[in-house]
Design brief:
Blueprint: E1 3-7, E2 10-13, E3 18-25, E4 33-39, E5 46-51, E6 57-59, E7 67-72, E8 77-82, E9 91-98, E10 108-109, E11 113-118
Length: 119
């Protein structure tokens, strides 16, 4: 059974930074597109960022210039560095994996990690 385990969430003041990590197990990691979604209270889950097997990245406009996604194929991890956090970034952040070239078709989800940004 594939497991995606997120870590690094927490409470931070607006303007601060957090780094989320997702460790994958029982997954042939390198061919997968990996990334992050988030879901704020009362809202639908939304795409945040993805990184493809090639290393190419796509980042949502709402976080462009503030969030950076990276992956370590040797450690089977994907990370999301979040800078200049805003109150509206408050959400549960989910790690996602897809066997296709984008996260339009997610095959595996993590359990989520809470990020709370105080204003």
């Amino acid at each position: 059974q594939v497991l995606l385990v997120e870590s690094g969430g927490g409470l931070v003041q607006a303007g601060g930074s957090l780094r989320l990590s997702c460790a994958a197990s029982r997954l042939t990691f390198s061919p997968y597109t990996m990334g992050w979604f988030r879901q704020a209270p009362g809202k639908e889950r939304e795409f945040v960022a993805e990184i493809r097997r090639s290393g190419g990245t796509v980042v949502a406009d709402s976080v462009k210039g503030r969030f950076t996604i990276s992956r370590d194929n040797g450690e089977n991890t994907v990370s999301l560095l979040m800078n200049r956090l805003k109150h509206e970034d408050t959400a549960v952040y989910y790690c996602a994996a897809s066997s296709t070239s984008s996260l339009s078709d997610v095959r595996y989800w993590g359990q989520g990690t809470q990020v709370t940004v105080s204003s």
